[in-house]
Amino acid sequence: LPVSAGVAIIGLFALFHGHAHGTEVPENAGGLEYMAGFAVATALLHGIGIAAMLGLGLRFRALARLAGAACATVGAGLAFGVL
User: What is the DSSP letter of 57?
Assistant: First the structure.
């Protein structure tokens, strides 16, 4: 796909993903604190993923691809209600 199409697809999924998390906010929770927690957790998860790829992915490229395929498979299973 062209980069612009990939960006559009990722943006659309990000919009729906953010909406899903926004609707999960409990009524008695402070919205700012709740979303700040999501932002910190997201940053930590991204950092861990980047560190794992830099540490292992460069040496074990096949393992990194296998892990990515496994994550995509689990995600698809969750999306279609199989898991």
Answer: I
* Domain ranges, residue 58: 3-79
Instruction: List per-block mean pLDDT (blocks of 10 residues) for the chain, which spans 83 residues.
Output: 90 89 80 84 90 79 86 92 87
Q: What is the DSSP string of the chain?
A: --HHHHHHHHHHHHHHHHHHHHHT--TTS-HHHHHHHHHHHHHHHHHHHHHHIIIIITT-HHHHHHHHHHHHHHHHHHHTT--
Residue recorded with tokens 């008695």: 28
Global pTM value: 0.54
